[in-house]
Amino acid sequence: MQTSSDRHEYPAHWEADVVLRDGGTARVRPITVDDAERLVSFYEQVSDESKYYRFFAPYPRLSAKDVHRFTHHDFVDRVGLAATVGGEFIATVRYDRIGPDGTPASAPADEAEVAFLVQDAHQGRGIASALLEHIAAVARERGIRRFAAEVLPANSKMIKVFTDAGYTQKRSFEDGVVRLEFGLEPTDRSLAVQQAREQRAEARSVQRLLAPGSVAVIGAGRAPGGVGRNLLDNIRDAGFTGRLYAVNKALPPEQKELDGAAGVPAHRSVRDIDGPVDLAVVAVPADDVPEAVAECGEHGVQGVVVVSAGYAEAGPDGRERQRALVRQARSYGMRIIGPNAFGVINTSPDVRLNASLAPQMPRPGRIGLFAQSGAIGIALLSRLHRRGGGVTGVTGVSTFVSSGNRADVSGNDVMQYWYDDPDTDVALMYLESIGNPRKFTRLARRTAAVKPLVVVQGARHSSGPRGHAVRATRLPHATVSALLRQAGVIRVDTITELVDAGLLLARQPLPSGPRVAILGNSESLGLLTYDACLAEGLRPHRPLDLTTGASAEDFHAALSRALADDTCDAVVVTAIPALGETPTDDTALAGALRSAAAATPSKPVLVVHVELGGLAEALSAAAGTAPRPAPAAPARPEAQAAHPAPPEDGRPAVTTTPVTASTQATPQGPVTPPTPESLPEDAHLIPAYPAAERAVRALAHSVTYAQWRRDAADPGKVPAYEDIDERSAAALIDAQLTRGESLTLGTEETCALLGAYGIHVHRALPAPTADDAVEAARTLGRPVALKVTAPHLRHRADLGGVRLDLADEEQLRRAYAELTDQLGTPEELRPVVQRMAPRGVDTIVRAVIDPAAGAVLSFGLAGAPSQLLGDMAHRLIPVTDREATSLVRSIRTAPLLFGWRGSTPVDTPALEELLLRVSRLVDDHPEVVAVSLEPVVVATHGVSVLSASVRLAPPPVRDDLGPRTLPAY
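The structure assignment produced for this chain is given below.
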């Protein structure tokens, strides 16, 4: 039990689990008075050289005074943090606040000396870098803005920790000591360094789970049958290249192998295994899991896959059991997949791991799969593995992870692994919940920049599975989907779409645009494809009908011409069973299409087939995504991934490679696909679809993603407006927040705050009587508008609460009388008078800080389009100039802004500037948690904000800007 020290309560919120450079985990927490023995034991295990580097002199042991000093902290001016594994210290860091003369001080002094000590056995794991992130965050919280550190010149490792952190630094050398001083405000470079370290650490932690050198199955039955035994058999039958062990505590002491599992050593406990165990697969009852995990931790196991059920999915007691499981595993530095997981698969020939309940190892390939549901995981593996019943063809998997309850390892971690995994070209994810949407969006944007990321989200209209810990969000699912698409995620609605899109992206290059050529031997199927293209927003050419008598040579010639056409970006080939005396052989047709496609490898080709027997198989006979055997070569650089950045001509390159498929039966007899050795180097891979709509939808996803890739190469910039007064806005916000935890600003304060950012709200004067309305009109100048501001009538022009273009006193008094007669008393209506704004299009601009997704900017047209049709577009803040431009054009009713049906186009550049200024306001001041401008009239020249509201609150915690941490349990 942690206790408080001198003055302040123990800061429990500083506790955190972190992933280290080698993929292991450690616990970071404040050092307290209860840690004296741990500190002494830790110091005894540090080498004399490390002690010398810490204290600049031989320092063999800590005195009682030292121990008291290093364990008694006030958690403000003196703070110590420790990194622990198994409850024992492996590293420490501390700061002491100092004044200008270098002596101990208290606030308002804003500088502190910082020092580290890392146990020699744990040096090189990135512990000091992680501790620096956490101690810097603590210091900022306590009002410290700068750190100073004195380091011996020979201590190059510690100097590197400071210099690589990315903070703005100043270095000096005096009296044989290097003095480093650096500010603690996060910089673009420090955040980039932190995120790069996070990616490497989390990717490594997943790699340790997916590529172990040894595996122990805990709970493997003595006889065939049962979950544990099936897992053991699946690992063995897949040809796992490492060492495999069976563990069953019920084994008789003399039994060394399980029945029917010859060659697999069997033990009563993991502790009895002679040698390291990298991965443990646990399949025992939930009540026995803690004992198994403890044995794993004591033996040094690196990670655990828990297949056992009975956790959070079972209710409150199970949820607490799940939390205890995660805490226990992390205390030993282990990561967990599960509980209630289906398992993991790695088809790499160097690993061949099938630690899952899938009885058959998937074919090797270049598609990564992540599923939070075991049942959906089975369906995905099945669809990718089989021919027929969907998109046919040999399609391979690189890695598969079923996370179960996602208590620890999540889709974010697996995305970090896939980001630079050379064996994965396309990532497919089935998600039922997103635990950290802000981080997911950030990682998705980076991953999508180098390889396609296709996501289908289940439980869209519910709170998600009971086993998942999910942050509450106020955003509707459609908004979250829009934000994911903004991050480059290919969002689909079904697992069928997920597989359809994944196959195309794995096999074909990205299209340069939306122009589609359609050719085939069925006019009707061609027209269906044409209509589907129009429905998906593509620009199809008129279909070319080759007639039902077309030969393979006819298809080859037509496809070659279409691919050579500069006005064509992609080709859809439609085919039905050939009729006549000499029908085209499926194998010949497939060869003709592959040959033509190979001649122009920069354009995607898709086939829509209707019950063609062997055509789909023949097309995909060499259409796997696994690499062909080849002589050893240097590792493929990141820039040469399956979908590298488009070259200067705008056409993306393609790197697709065939794999051997098994012999398939066709109506014409058996077809033996060519072996990899018999195929040309540029063998082109063509996916086949059983319906035009599915093929076209997959192509539309590819077109959208390709455009996102091109746009992401130049995302634009956040403009710096010289008239923004950030300090005045901050002062106003601070003054208002002293009045309460959360509040909505009054009219004057709202206008003042928005005015500091160059956003001017049309003045509105209250009119409690008709005479007040007349006086207000004189003050503002006519013509004026009279409108009610009562909450139930606000923005409801359809109820008659607004009167426009009142040019004289008589009209104004008559309008006032009509409003009060029809709608209620002035006290109920709260009428105001406002000078008429120039005519234009009424729009809405809103910004909100969502606790899960972060700051979001929204735009739409006022009235029915947004309220009835939900026609709103959204972007994450901060918004760049290019994003503001796309935001305005993203709504379905955008044509009304650009001269629809002969109307005068309005000033969209002024509208975009308004959006950028709102984005800046919310980004600069996280205390601004909601802004609503409604309506904003966009006229031919300029915009007019007629009404505005702003809500303030203490800023929510931004965990994406703080130090690296794992989700808390």
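Interim note for the steering committee: The radius of gyration is 33 Å. The chain is about 30% helix and 20% strand.
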